[in-house]
Every structure is written in structure tokens, then in C-alpha cells.
């Protein structure tokens, strides 16, 4: 009798765990954020390659400020979809750090790719490198963030 | 630490999943809950009405463009009831796992 009650209680706890894992899986940033980031990356590289240095500096500053204002609401990772807002306790506090770390990593990849393309004698290495990073960001942003969350247990 | 308090209203599996989902969120929309819990409109409405009647959740209608959307959120009373119920479930599982003292255990 007691074993049956414990079994039922265990099943009920399993249901609770499953429901809460489903909500935790919703932590992330909207797909549009990643595509906007990819587009910004590409536009910056075009300006850097074709425009004057002052314009590239202004554009980079503007992009950074725009991202800060826009991402302040999104970086918590609690509003990936319009269907729910994940609680702060479930989302944790490390999502913004992971996203910023990921963006820095992508910037590093862009620089390395541009250097490699330049050494290979390619035309417009910065644009090709940015195109590569933009594709990674746009197509794989949510998946990369999911993997990083798993690695860091965030 | 939440005091264990078995809650008959929350315990049925559908309602428990619903409350557990809302406990992990600040709010959730009707369509999200319906999709994740695999429930029909009428079944979900009925469960939400029951929980709202008990004061465990509140629902609100919001106009989004041209469409009305229903959001549900757990009230503090609902959160307390859910936490107490989960604590009670854990207590039941833990007490069943404890070794039983008795003649058979000490030959």
C-alpha cells in the first residue's frame, strides 16, 4: 500500500520534472535576434571594407549602443517566444554572460578567418569572413547557445 | 523550506503538469499551454477555471494586434500550494525508501 503511494508520488514528481524541463528548454533568444546580429555583422564588414575609417568607427559604436539597448530586454533569455516568460529562477543569471562570451568568440573567429583569407590572397577578406560568421550566427545561434548552456550548466 | 502539504486539487496529473509549467514561468499564454500539455481548448479552459476558482492562478485577456490572447499566471497562494505539494510528494517517496526497523531487520 505504502509502496504504491510512493510509486504514485514518484510518478507525480516525474510529471513535475518533465513540465519544468519543457519550460527550461524555452530559455534563449528569439530567432530574429540572431538574424539581426548576422545582418549587423555583415553591414559593419561592408562599411569597414568600403567606407572611410571614421564611418566604420561610428557604425561600430552605433551597433554596440543599439545592441545594448535592444538586448537589455532579451539577454535574460526569458522571452525567446511570445508564448511565455520563463521565471528568473529557471533562466538563471548566466545567460547574458554566455551570449556576450559567444559574441566575443564569433568576433575572434571573424578576425582569424579574415587573416587566413588575407594570407591566402582573397579579395575582400573582411567581407567573406563576416559572411561566414553571419551564417553561423543566423543559422546556428540558438543551437550554439543551447550547447553552451548545457556545457556551462546554465 | 516549504512545509509539506498534500493538495488534492493540484494532484491530478493534468492539473499538476499545468501548475508545474506555470510555476517555472512568470506567465504563459493559453496557446503555449495547450500545445505543450496536449490539451483541447475546452479541457484547458476547464482546468484553468478550476484553478482560478481556488485562487491558485489568475488569467487575463490581452489584445495583441487584432487578437485577444489569454495569459495565465500562478498566484502566491498557488505557488505556496504547489511547493507544499511537491514537498509532500518528496516526503512520501523518502519515507518509503527509509529502512524499516523491526525484528526482521535485527535478527
UniProtKB/TrEMBL annotation, chain A:
Q: Which organism is it from?
A: Streptomyces spirodelae
Which sequence ranges are marked TM in the entry?
32-48, 54-75, 95-119, 125-145
Keyword entries, A-Z: Membrane, Transmembrane, Transmembrane helix
Starting at the broadest rank, the lineage of the source organism is:
Bacteria, Bacillati, Actinomycetota, Actinomycetes, Kitasatosporales
Protein name (Swiss-Prot/TrEMBL): Transmembrane protein
Record carries keyword Transmembrane: yes
Q: Does Transmembrane show up as a keyword for this record?
A: yes
UniProtKB/TrEMBL annotation, chain B:
Domain Winged helix DNA-binding per the UniProt entry, residue ranges: 15-93
Native organism: Streptomyces spirodelae
Q: What is this protein called?
A: Transcriptional regulator
One Pfam entry for this protein is HTH_34
> Which Gene3D superfamilies does the entry mention?
Winged helix-like DNA-binding domain superfamily/Winged helix DNA-binding domain
Please give the InterPro entries that the UniProt record associates with this protein: WH-like_DNA-bd_sf, WH_DNA-bd_dom, WH_DNA-bd_sf
The organism's lineage is: Bacteria, Bacillati, Actinomycetota, Actinomycetes, Kitasatosporales
Amino acid at each position: 500500500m505504502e509502496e504504491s503511494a510512493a510509486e504514485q508520488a514518484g510518478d507525480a514528481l516525474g510529471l513535475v520534472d518533465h513540465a519544468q524541463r519543457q519550460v527550461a528548454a524555452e530559455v534563449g533568444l528569439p530567432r530574429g535576434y540572431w538574424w539581426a546580429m548576422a545582418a549587423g555583422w555583415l553591414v559593419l564588414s561592408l562599411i569597414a571594407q568600403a567606407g572611410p575609417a571614421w564611418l566604420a568607427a561610428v557604425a561600430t559604436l552605433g551597433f554596440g549602443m543599439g545592441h545594448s539597448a535592444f538586448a537589455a530586454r532579451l539577454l535574460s533569455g526569458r522571452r525567446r517566444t511570445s508564448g511565455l516568460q520563463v521565471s528568473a529562477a529557471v533562466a538563471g543569471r548566466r545567460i547574458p554572460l554566455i551570449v556576450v562570451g559567444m559574441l566575443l568568440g564569433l568576433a575572434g573567429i571573424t578576425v582569424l578567418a579574415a587573416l587566413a583569407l588575407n594570407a591566402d590572397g582573397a579579395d575582400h577578406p573582411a567581407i567573406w569572413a563576416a559572411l561566414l560568421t553571419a551564417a553561423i550566427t543566423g543559422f546556428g545561434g540558438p543551437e550554439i547557445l543551447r550547447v553552451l548552456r548545457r556545457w556551462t550548466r546554465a | 523550506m516549504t512545509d509539506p502539504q498534500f493538495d488534492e486539487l493540484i494532484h491530478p496529473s493534468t492539473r499538476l503538469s499545468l501548475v508545474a509549467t506555470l510555476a517555472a514561468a512568470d506567465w504563459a499564454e493559453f496557446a503555449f499551454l495547450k500545445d505543450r500539455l496536449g490539451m483541447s481548448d475546452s479541457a484547458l479552459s476547464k482546468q484553468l477555471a478550476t484553478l482560478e476558482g481556488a485562487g491558485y492562478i489568475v488569467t487575463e485577456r490581452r489584445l495583441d494586434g487584432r487578437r485577444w490572447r489569454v495569459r495565465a499566471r500562478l498566484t502566491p497562494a498557488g505557488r505556496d500550494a504547489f511547493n507544499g505539494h511537491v514537498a509532500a510528494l518528496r516526503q512520501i517517496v523518502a519515507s518509503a525508501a527509509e529502512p524499516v526497523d523491526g525484528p526482521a531487520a535485527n535478527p
